[in-house]
Amino acid sequence: MENVLVVRNLSKRYDEFQLKNVSFSLPKGCIMGLVGENGAGKSTTIKLILNLINRDGGSVSIFGKDNLTHEKTIKEDLGVVFDESSFPDNLNAKNISLVMKNVYKNWDEGLFYSYLKRFALPAQKKVKDYSRGMKMKLAIAAALSHHPKFLILDEATSGLDPMVREEILDIFLEFIQDEEHSILLSSHIISDLEKIADYVTFIHRGEVLFSEAKDQLLEEYGILKCTHAEFDSLDKDLIVRYRKNQFGVEALVRRNKLKGKHLLDPAGIEDIMLFYSKGVEK
Predict the structure, then answer these.
(1) Which DSSP state fits 127?
(2) Percent of the chain with pLDDT over 70
(3) Nearest Cα to 42, choosing from 170, 193, 181, 206?
């Protein structure tokens, strides 16, 4: 399968934080959720992918091209949305279209105005008078209106009400329907990713703990609840991570390795993240 994005051993050191050899790849035509707690390194990773900050090591390939050598060509086909509006407050949507026309060769004013209509965004109203949801819709409309092949979104749905989020998620699903377009979406809202993501990459304290297909994660893992005595009798190769309390043990296990009549609870993406980040490793 062809990859639209390949990140290899990406590293960046700050005084109080280090991104450590981050590696993952995103197949073309798919959506990847980039997840992790605040300060885990998600935004740093995205900035390095976009070459907005200097890396200390590693490489990034987008569309099969090095993101340093071919930066200008690559960015013609990228749509980018950050968690805060990047448009000046005194501009309106009509002004923004005029500016973007001079930035992107493929800027499609007709498409931009069709998104404004779909999102019910007034073209003459200044950005400063938009709500947060309207600002995010405007940013997404602008990101989509130069016919990008790859969207990179950093917390683009955070702080939005469920109705607005649902509307934006529908746009993302439409974007990848032809299997020629791809999305990397950083988000704290795991329920959104469970709806639309094909892959999930979990960064914790600057390191990738897992990067796998979402369906494979949900199928592979289960949660076993048992007594301390039952836990001590288990084959430790079954256990990925565990948490003990005074009442018993909860363990994240791999279903295919578990034999016998053990009853397992399903493990959602958030459960798996919590076990990997806070559970004890056998």
Answers:
(1) G
(2) 98
(3) 206
User: How many whole angstroms separate alpha carbon 41 and alpha carbon 207?
Assistant: 8
Q: What is the pairing mode between strands 207-213 and 18-27?
A: unpaired
Quick one: which of 188, 91, 191 has its CA closest to 142?
A: 91
Six token digits for residue 206: 């600057």
Q: Alpha helices of 77-202 — where are they, by DSSP H?
A: 93-101, 109-118, 132-144, 162-175, 190-196
Give residue-wise pLDDT tens across range 146-200: 999 999 999 888 778 888 888 889 999 999 999 899 999 998 889 899 999 999 9
CA distances from 200 to 24, 183, 186, 187, 270 (A): 10, 12, 10, 11, 11
124-162: buried (b, 16+ CB within 10 Å) or exposed (e) per residue? eeebeebeebbbbbbbbbbbbbbebbbbbbbbbbeebee
CA 60, 170, 272, 35 torsion-angle sign: positive
**Three-state DSSP class for residue 105:** coil
What's the angle, vertex CA 43, arms to CA 42 and CA 45, rounded to 5? 65
* Residue listed under structure tokens 């919590």: 274
Is the four-CA dihedral 51, 56, 62, 66 of positive or negative sign? positive
Burial label, 19 (beta-carbon count in 10 A; 0-12, 13-18, 19+): buried
- Tell me the pairing of strands 150-154 and 78-81: parallel
Parallel, antiparallel, or unpaired: how do β-strands 221-226 and 182-186 relate? unpaired
Q: What dihedral do alpha carbons 45, 205, 3, 75 form, nearest 10°?
A: -10
The C-alpha atoms of residue 248 and residue 228 are separated, in whole angstroms, by: 5
List, in order, residues 6 or more apart from 247 with CB less than 8 Å away.
none
pLDDT digits (tens, 9 = 90+) for 60-104: 999 999 999 999 999 999 999 988 778 899 999 999 999 999 999
